[in-house]
Amino acid sequence: MKQFSLFAWTHVALLIVVTQSYLIIKNIFEGLIWFIVPVSMIICNDIMAYVFGFFFGKTPLIKLSPKKTWEGFIGGGFSTVVFGVMISYVMCQHPYFVCPIEYSETLGRMTMECEPSALFRPTDYSLPSWLSGVLGVFGVSTTISLYPFVLHSLSLSVFSSVIGPFGGFFASGFKRAFKIKDFGDVIPGHGGIMDRFDCQFLMATFVNVYISSFIQTDSPQKLLSQVLYLKPEQQLQLFHMLKESLENRNILELNN
């Protein structure tokens, strides 16, 4: 029993600490905005849920956390959506936050300089026809200029406010099972570091899956780095195949 308990503890530690840390680092390399915005959303949700619960909380949310209320849960969720839109709009204007961290062969070092992708450039969106008709009466523009990332931030904020707190519920159940109040006592009045980051676990996984599913595309640089791993004869074969394809589509002029 003791050996299997240690075995289980090892796997839980790897899942919670190592895996989540790995995913967070991967998110950072996609651009600091993919790290700062989700983390800020969780922090905002925590704070605003406490504020709304403190002033308006009456209905208990879950038995694992008796102090959490539905009023705090809903108020924190609404505040997180508004905060997510605001911080995303501000950060999209600074290339330092949106550029991926990549190695530059020209500079010989890691760099965060790039031309922001379409995700971080203002795009005009047409409003729904029913709303356009109403605004047209008052002479208001029927299009809106917005950063596409701001729309993606809505998905992140909804997840952080609806599903994110369940990381905290899991931690609360874990502490209750072992009859402890906090994971540590590093931060006076708040417990340990683990107590402050319990909601971040699910968020890191979601952001990484979201980037892989809806955002990430293969760039020429990434494809080239993979091609360079091929054997010389395979690289030459790929070159001739690509050249033939470009010539057939009249993209590359045929040699005379």
UniProtKB/TrEMBL annotation:
Keyword Lipid metabolism on entry: yes
Keywords: Lipid biosynthesis, Lipid metabolism, Membrane, Nucleotidyltransferase, Phospholipid biosynthesis, Phospholipid metabolism, Transferase, Transmembrane, Transmembrane helix
Reaction(s) this enzyme catalyzes, per UniProt: a 1,2-diacyl-sn-glycero-3-phosphate + CTP + H(+) = a CDP-1,2-diacyl-sn-glycerol + diphosphate
EC number(s) reported in the record: 2.7.7.41
A GO biological process held by the record: CDP-diacylglycerol biosynthetic process
Pfam families referenced in this protein's UniProt entry, alphabetically: CTP_transf_1
Mode of membrane association: Multi-pass membrane protein
Domain of life: Eukaryota
GO molecular function, one term: phosphatidate cytidylyltransferase activity
UniProt subcellular location: Membrane
Chief site of localization: membrane
Membrane-spanning segments: 6-25, 32-52, 72-92, 130-150, 156-174
Pathway(s) this gene product operates in, as recorded in its UniProt entry: Lipid metabolism; Phospholipid metabolism; CDP-diacylglycerol biosynthesis; CDP-diacylglycerol from sn-glycerol 3-phosphate: step 3/3
One cellular component (GO) term of this entry: endoplasmic reticulum membrane
The family this protein is said to belong to: Belongs to the CDS family.
Name listed for the protein in its UniProt record: Phosphatidate cytidylyltransferase
Organism per entry: Tenebrio molitor
